[in-house]
Specification:
The complex is a heterodimer of chains A (about 120) and B (about 110). Chain A is mainly beta and about 120 residues long. Helices cover about 0% and strands about 50% of the residues of chain A. In chain B, strands 2, 4, 5, 6, 9, 10 and 11 form a 7-stranded mixed sheet that branches. A 4-stranded antiparallel sheet of chain B has the order 1-3-8-7, with no helix packed on it. Chain B has about 110 residues and is an all-beta fold. In chain B, strand 5 (about 45-50) and strand 6 form a beta hairpin. The chains are: A mainly beta (about 120), B mainly beta (about 110).
Chain lengths: ~120, ~110
């Protein structure tokens, strides 16, 4: 059974940093792109970032480019989202998702999410 | 970047049929936009219903179908059930940029 489980969310002050993790199981991790999607409280979904199965290609939304870095450790079946220079507008539930192919940027199989709150 | 538009809200009667649409500010939606459809119920994570225009997952109820209609991606629900009341989002990959979600359609079954 495919599973992705996010962790690392929490409360952080404006200007701070946080690293989210997403541990996957039930599939050959290195064969699939992984993505992050966020949802601010009461708002819609926003695509944030994606990484290819091998890690050689990364993609970012304009709103996070230069502040967020996506990476993966295929030996640990885990994808990361390093977030820096956080602002209140980054407050959201962050979802990790498996794609349908090695260069997939669309989320397909979703985790339950981890909440990030940016507040002083 | 492209703006993806959805109906903000729709209402369907139990057993009825409704079509949700997903348009792009850059022009007609094609299979090259790899349209996806997601369902999200309150307090839950989204789940994928349709990928690449009209492909279903094993968990997608048969009453949902995807298509291209009038230059837009479309999600049709035939035989609505009370449990289909949810927010529905589409996602497109415009050739000019990164994937973009629509604003979502709140579907009421009433």
């Amino acid at each position: 059974e495919v599973q992705v489980v996010e962790s690392g969310g929490g409360l952080v002050q404006p200007g701070g940093s946080l690293r989210l993790s997403c541990e996957a199981s039930g599939f050959t991790f290195s064969s699939y792109g992984m993505s992050w999607v966020r949802q601010a409280p009461g708002k819609g979904l926003e695509w944030v970032s994606a990484i290819s199965g091998s890690g050689d290609s990364t993609y970012y939304a304009d709103s996070v480019r230069g502040r967020f870095t996506i990476s993966r450790d295929n030996s640990k079946d885990t994808v990361f989202l390093q977030m820096s220079s956080l602002g209140v507008e980054d407050t959201a539930a962050y979802y990790c998702a498996k794609g349908l192919g090695p260069y997939a940027t669309h989320p397909d199989h979703w985790g339950q999410g981890t909440l990030v709150t940016v507040s002083s | 970047q492209a703006v993806v538009t959805q109906e903000p809200s729709l209402t369907v009667s139990p057993g009825g049929t409704v079509t949700l649409t997903c348009g792009s500010s850059t022009g007609a939606v094609t299979s090259g936009h790899y349209p996806y459809w997601f369902q999200q119920k309150p307090g839950q994570a989204p789940r994928t219903l349709i990928h690449d225009v009209n492909n279903k997952h094993s968990w997608t109820p048969a009453r949902f179908s995807g298509s291209l209609l009038g230059g837009k991606a479309a999600l049709t629900l035939s035989g609505a059930q009370p449990e289909d009341e949810a927010e529905y989002y589409c996602l497109l990959s415009p050739s000019s940029g990164r994937p973009v979600f629509g604003g979502g359609t709140k579907l009421t079954v009433l």
